[in-house]
Every structure is written in C-alpha cells, then in structure tokens.
Amino acid sequence: MGGFSLIHWIILGILVLLLFGGNRFSAMMGDVAKGLKSFKQGLADDDEEQRRKAEDARRLGSADRPIDVTPNPRAADPVAPPPPPPPPSDQYPR
C-alpha cells in the first residue's frame, strides 16, 4: 500500500522507454550530464576567480598601506584580575 515495489518501477521504466524511445532518452540524459559538467566547471571558475582576487588584494594591500605603529592604549593597560570568590558561608547546618 505504501510505496512502489520492484515490479512497479520496472513497468514505469518500460513506459518511459516506450514514450520517449531509446535514442531520445539517452540524448536527454546526455544533455543532463553536459549541464551538470558545465555547472561544476562554472563553480570551479568562480572559486578560482575569488581566490585570485583575494591573493591580489592581499599582495597589493600590504604594499600600499603604511604600517600602523601607534600604541594601542587598551593593550598597555593591564586588565585587573577578577575579585576572589566570597568565603563559604555557614548558613546551612551540617
């Protein structure tokens, strides 16, 4: 009742082959494969372009900007340690 059994899938496959024919079905699958290959190649090209831009920006950015040597006022001030915990209270009898 719930899902398709093996015989249902076989009958469905035969119907698809009869409707589309062997050559037309294989041509459609070839087109799908070409589309997937083109999509993956486009993603790889985008990644390569972004990597190249980041590398150029890093290389050019470090040479164009002067180095900031002003002291950081927050780094010079030590942070006070947290206060010690309060001593245990004897509110609860043993």
UniProtKB/TrEMBL annotation:
Keywords: Cell inner membrane, Cell membrane, Membrane, Protein transport, Translocation, Transmembrane, Transmembrane helix, Transport. Pfam families: TatA_B_E. Residues 41-94 are annotated as: Disordered. The keyword Protein transport applies. Residues 79-94 have a biased composition (Pro residues). The keyword Transcription does not apply. This is Sec-independent protein translocase protein TatA.
